[in-house]
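Revision sheet: structure tokens.
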Amino acid sequence: MSRLPHTGTSIFSIMSLMANEHKAINLSQGFPDFEIDPQLAEITARIARGNLHQYMPSSGYQPLLDKISGMVNHTYQRKTNASTEILITAGGTQALFNTIMALVNAGEEIIILDPAYDSYGPAALLSGAKPVRIALNDDYSPDWNAIADAINGKTKMLIINNPHNPTGKTWNNEDFLQLELLLDLHPKILLLSDEVYEHITFEECHISVLTREKLKDRSITISSFGKSFHITGWKVGYAIAPKYLMKEIKKAHQFVVFSVNSIAQAAISEYMDVVDISELGKFYQQKRDFFRNLMSNTKFELLPCEGSYFQIASYANISNESDIHFTKRLVSEYGVAAIPVSAFYDDGKDLKRIRFCFAKKEETLIRAVERLLKLK
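Predicted:
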């Protein structure tokens, strides 16, 4: 019997296969098509020629843990114990999975805000928990009344994602005040904050759960070097949590991957001495603005993009097709791959919106929009 009976081939795989089949420009999957920083490449090559090829400690390479602790203190003014409150993981997804498996029991409930990253629900089901899906408002702000109504004695965890994938929405201070008021009423609920795009925000600075005194002692924060340093294929992320929670997460971690790639950890640790991560938002804001300017000549209506490297576009004034059918036609007839936003909703809610990834070379974006301009 399948423990994930309703899970099949993901829309991401389907669109990428179609993109390959039709030789389309792939703006569907969320990864860059440009080179990594030459400094990082040189550091990695040098380390690979050394003798750092065996297991790292399960919690992570201590110099890297120390660098993360320092960065968190500098960025968020949050002091963390590198040895007991930080864990290096095989990407953000493994951190999410470990956290849920370690902290949520069979029969308990996890609130997931739709549209949601597609790993949350399966992780909840595999833990034996019940995922409770609550739709965000149509502007992708939290519906606090609906969230409050969903909480009951079985609720163990609330998952939030800021900056948000797929929509590019970021939370503001009022959102966090509302969250704190709600969780004050339910002191046993844990907060899992997916912040893998934390360094990719634009007009407004990212607000991390790590900065919230009322939340930090009941929260697990997930981050990703893959997103921050354009190295998604390295699959290196990390989790931050208070010691009493991290102790349990580490128990699960040791039986999933035990430890993360040694060369990658050492290279990232050294790279953190030379990179200015505060410049990342500016880098991607230029790409966002470049893409939005190109798209202004198309028939799409662009929604605000406040963070991440995703742009939501409405095609409601172009077609009445379902977003799945529309994206498939976009690939087969016009040679551009995108993701239908309904794929991120448990109930398939269709607002006639699709997601583009703009973490691409300028020439890639230009060629894609040239094709979108032909859309009828």
